[in-house]
Amino acid sequence: MESLPAPPILRRRTVLNYFLGTTLGGTLCAILYPVLQFLIPPAVSEASESSVVAGTSGELKHGSAKIFRFGSQPGLLIKTPTGETRAFSATCTHLNCTVQYRPDIEHIWCACHDGHYDINGKNIAGPPPRPLEQYAVNFRGDDVIVSKG
Amino acid sequence: MNVAAQLVLLIAVGQAPSRIDSCVQCHKDLRDNRLSAPVIQMQNDIHSGRGLSCVNCHAGDDKQSDKKRAMDPAAGFIGKPRPADVAPFCGKCHSNAEFMRAYNPAPRVDQEAEYKTSVHSKRVAEGDSRPATCISCHGSHGVRAVKDATSPVYPTRVVETCGRCHVDPEYMKPYKIPTDQLAKYMSSVHAEALFKKLDLSAPTCNDCHGNHGAVPPGAASVANVCGTCHVRQSGLFQNSPHKPVFEVLGTGDCLACHNNHDTSHTTDAMLGTDQQAICTSCHTDGAGFEAAGRMSRAISLLSERIGSAEATLERATQVGMEVSRMTFDLNEARNHLIDARVVVHSFSPNELEAVVKPGMDITARAHQQGLQALEEAAFRRKGLALALVVIGLAILAIYLKIRDIEKVSSEPN
Amino acid sequence: MSGTTPNSLWQWFDKRIGLEIVVNAAREKEVPIHRHTVWYYFGGMTLFLFTVQAVTGMLLLLYYRPSTENAFESVQFIMAQVRFGWLIRSIHSWSANLLVAVLFIHLFSVFFLRAYRRPRELTWITGMLPLFVTLAFGFSGYLLPWNTIAFFATQVGTEVAGVVPFAGSFLVRFLRGGNEVTGATLTRFFAFHVAMLPALSVVIAGIHLLLVQRHGMSVPFSAKPRPLKTMQFVPNFLLRDLIGWLSALAALATLSALFPSELGQKADPFAPAPAGIRPEWYFMFMFQTLRVMPAKIGPLEGEILAVTVFGMAAGLLFCVPFIDRQANTGRKNRLLLLSGWLAVVYILVMTVLGYRR
C-alpha cells in the first residue's frame, strides 16, 4: 500500500485541499488585517477639538499677537503690553471677517467695516454687535494650550 | 373737585409731581382732540418721565385754573410754536449744557446748531412750513429716547420718518428733488442688513445725510461719508487715479459705481471688460481698459480656484477624510480674496496682483491636499480589488471542493 | 473528509464538555433537496450578517462616544483617523441594510412555504421576535452618529409612537428619555443598541436555532421528487452556505469601498427640520403610508388608524401558525396567500413611492 504512487484522483484532491486552505487562509487574513489595524489606537488619541496648542510661551513679545488654528477656525493669541496671555476667536462678530491686532492703537481691529475691540475682546466701536468669544489659556511646560469653554 | 377725585386724577394721569397740574386737569376734558390728546401722549414721554411737565416747555402757570391767567402770553406762555420757532423752543433746554448736565453727565448740546446748517432749517427760516423741524421727526408730546424701539428715530424707523415727506410727490413738488430715494434704498444691501439681518450698525438716512444738519453730502465728500465704515476702500480710492478725475466730472466718488440709495450687492461682474461691467461705461480701450481686464481676471481666477478647492474638500469630508487644516488654510485664502476686492479701489493692477498671489498659492496647496485626501480614499479601491480577488478565489476553491466531494459520493468506491 | 479527529486536545475537552454530542448532531443533520432548497440558505445568511454586525459593532465601540458633544466627532474620528475605521463603520452600516433585507426574505420565504405549521409554531414565534428586535436595532443605531438626518428621522419616528392609543405618550417619553429628542435619547438608544437588544436577540435567536435543529428542515408539501434526496449538512450544505457568506462579505467590502458611509452635518436640535427627512428604507413603507393617510377617516384620525392597522397586521403575522390550520393538511389557503402577496406588493410599492417624493 505504501509504495504505490498516489492515484491521480488523490493527487488532485490534495492540490484542491491546498488551494482551498490557502484561499480560505487568505480570506481570513483579508478580514483580520483591517480588524487588527483598527484595534491599534491612532497617533492622535482624542477626537474632540476642544483644545489646541497655540504656540510656545516665549514666542510672542509684549504687545503683539498671532493667528493660530483652532480646528478649522482662526484664533487670536495676544500677549498684552502688561505681559498677560489671552486668546480669542478671531472671527469678527459682525460679518465673520478675520480680525487682527493693531499694536498702534492697542485694539483688536476688523478691517472689513472698521470694527474695534479692546484687549478684553469687548466690542467698543463700529458695527460688531458682540464681544469676541474668549478662550481659556493654560501653560503646560513651554506650550500655550488654548481651550474652549 | 373734592380731594378724593383729585387724587384719583393724579394717579390716573400718572404724573410724578405731587402737585396739581391745572394744564392737565383742564385739557384732558376738552372735546377737541388736538387739545386733549397731548395729555394722554405725555404719559409715555421721556420728558415727563424725568419729572418735567407742560410748563417746562410752554411756560405759563399750572397753578391757575383760570384759562387766561394760566396761559398768559404776557407772563411768558408759549402756545404752539411756529415752525421757524420750534428749534429755539427745544433748544431752550437742549442747547443749554448746564441744564442738560442734570439729566446726562455728557450731553450733546449742538443739535440746534447742527440743524441751523441744514436745508430744512434754511427753508423754514424763509417761512416755509413744510420742511422738518424737531417735532417732525421726534414728535412733540410722547417723545421717546432714540434707543427706544418705538421712537420714530430708532434706526429701523428712520426711513419711514424721513419718508413721510420725502416720498410724497405732492408734498415735495416745490423742491424739485426726486422722491424715489426710499424705494431705491429699500432695494439696497444696507436696507437688507438693517431690516432683514437686524444689523443696527447698517446705515440708514441719517448715517449718510446727518441727523440734524441734514444735507446731501457734497460730491467731493462722498468718499469720506462712505469711508466712515468702509475705511480701507475710501482711503485707497482717495489715493487712486480715479479721485481727481471723478472730482472734475462731479460723479460723486463712490456713487459713480455703487449708486447712493440703491447700493446693491457688489459682485465680481462689476469689474472687468465685459458689457455688464461698470468699468466699460468709461473705459473702452487704453490703459484703463487693460487695467480693468487684469484686475478682473486676477479676482475671478482666485474666486474660482477657492470654489473648486472648497468643493474638493467637501467631497473629502463626506467620505470621512480629516481636512480641518486645509479648511483653515482656505479661510486664509478667502481673506485674501476679500482683501483683493478691497484693493480694487486702488485701481492698480500691480497692487491687486500682489494681494491675489499669496491667496492663489494657499488655494493651490489646499486643493492639492484635498486631492491627496481623495486619492487616499481611492486607494481603498485598490485594496478592495485585492480583497475581492482573494475572496473570489476562495469561493472558487469551495465550489471545486463541493464538486469534488459530490462526485465521490456518486462514484462507486 | 469527515473522518475522526484524533488529537488528544479534543479528547481532553470532550471528556469535560461532551463535544461528541454536538459533532454527532452536526454529522447527522441532513438537508432535503428540492426546488425550494434555495430558501434554506437565508436563515444562515441572516445569522452570518448578524455576526458581522456584532463584530463590527464591538469594534466601533472602542472609539464611539455616546454624548451629544462627542458622538458626531467620534464617528468622524473613526472615519478619518482610525486605520480602516471607514471600512468597519461602512461595513456595519451596509450590513445592517443587508441584514434587514435578508431577514425579510427569510420571513416571507418561510411564510409562503408555510414552514410555520405544526410542529414548528414556536420556531415561528421565536423567529418573529428577532424581526422586531432587528428593526429596533436599526432604529436605535440610526441615531448614534448624531447627524441632522438621524436626529430628525428619530424625532419623526418617536413622534409616531405617540399615536398608539392609550400608551402613546408614555411610549414617546420612554423612547426619548424625555419630551424631546436630546442627549438623553442618545444615551438611551445607545443602551438599547449595545446592551439590551443584543442580550435579547442572543437569547431568543438561540432558542430559535435550537428549535430549528430539533425539528430539522421543514419540507413544503409541494416538494418533489418523493422520496426526497438529501445532502449532508456538514460538509455539503455548509460549504454552499460558506459560498453565500463569502459572497455577502465581498458585496459588503465592495459597497463599503465604493460607497462609504457619509458623515452628514452634526445635529442641531434648534435648527428647523431640513427638507427630505426620511427614515431608513425598511421603515419607508410605513412612513409613506402615514404621509398619504387623510387626516380623518370617519370619526377616526388617519394616523391612529394606520398605526392600529399595522399593529394588527403584525399581531396577525405573529399568530399565523394558529390561524392557518389548513397548513397542517397541505391544503392551499388562498386567503392567506392572497393577503401575503398583497402585503409584499404593498410594501414594495409604498417603499418606491416614498423615495419618489
Provide the residue-averaged pLDDT of chain B. Answer: 85
Q: How many β-strands of chain A, per DSSP?
A: 10
Please state the oligomeric state of the protein chains shown.
Answer: heterotrimer
Q: Helical amount among residues of chain A, as a percent range?
A: 10-25%
Work out the count of structural domains of chain B. 3
Report strand order across the widest sheet of chain A: 1-10-9-4-3-2
Which spans of chain A have pLDDT < 50 for at least 5 consecutive residues?
Answer: none
Query: What integer is the average pLDDT of chain A?
Result: 86
Instruction: Give helix and strand order of chain B, one letter per element, not per position.
Output: HHHHHHHHHHHHHHHHHHHHHH
Instruction: Quickly give the structural class of chain B.
Output: mainly alpha
CATH superfamily of the largest domain in chain A: Rieske [2Fe-2S] iron-sulphur domain
Cα distance spanning the termini of chain B: 134 Å
Which CATH class of the largest domain in chain A applies here? Answer: Mainly Beta
Order of helices and strands of chain A: HEEEEEEEEEE
- According to CATH, the fold-level topology of the largest domain in chain A is Rieske Iron-sulfur Protein
Profile the largest sheet of chain A: 6 strands, antiparallel
Number of helices of chain A: 1
The gross shape of chain A turns out to be: rod-shaped
Give the total of beta strands of chain B: 0
Class based on secondary structure composition and strand pairing of chain A: alpha+beta
